[in-house]
Amino acid sequence: MNAEQAEWIEEFEAAAKRSLEERLRYAFIHTYKPVLDDEPYRSFDTTAEYRRWCEENLPSWLGYGRTV
Amino acid sequence: MAARFEYRQAQELSAALHKNRVKYLFIGKSGAILLGFPDTTQDADLFVERSPENGRAVVAALKELGFPLTAAHEKDIVRGKDFVQLRYGPFDLDLVFAPDGIEKFADAERRALTVEGMRVCHIDDIIRSKEATGRVKDRESLPRLKAFRDWWMKQKRD
Fold first, then answer.
1. Which CATH number does the domain housing residue B121 bear?
2. Cα dihedral A45, A51, A52, A55 in deg (nearest 10)
3. Which chain B residues are Cβ-neighbours of A23 within 8 angstroms?
4. Residues A62 and A35 in one domain
């Protein structure tokens, strides 16, 4: 196990000691995601269509593009 | 911008879904977080069984929670479009009717867990789904999520 993995285990163990209420308080954050958050509602007939829309419309740094 | 998803909202969402007998499972990072994975996310993701009856139940639950669904949006949900993104309710919510990497809702339902009344996909299904998306953000988060899976399984065994 490397140092990063050991740190992850510490984080998992620390989280396990917190209540669900506390964990959710830390987990759900609200940051503005350009384009993605600009419309109140979107729907896609297929998941493939949604993935394609993400790739073609969202800034690449958001990470919604595919690796292959 | 909607309020962030908090414990109270998770409870209210869960109560509304159960009251309306919705067949659903938390999936994605929000599901992993409910299982104990320490990370951050913005919205809740629900894997919803695709059927007109279940779609109508989802619509009823969301309306009770204050999502201002239009007739067209209700139709999308009842029809079970693969992906519906709601950014106009009390919190941000994605409805996923056909997640990558999971063939059938019933299969995921058999493996699912209940966390404080909320139905959550098994961590293996969450990982399988993220692997199948092939997205950059998922690829980057998978090593830590898989480490959590191993740690979590060990806790369950011990």
1. 3.30.460.40
2. 150
3. 33, 36, 38
4. yes
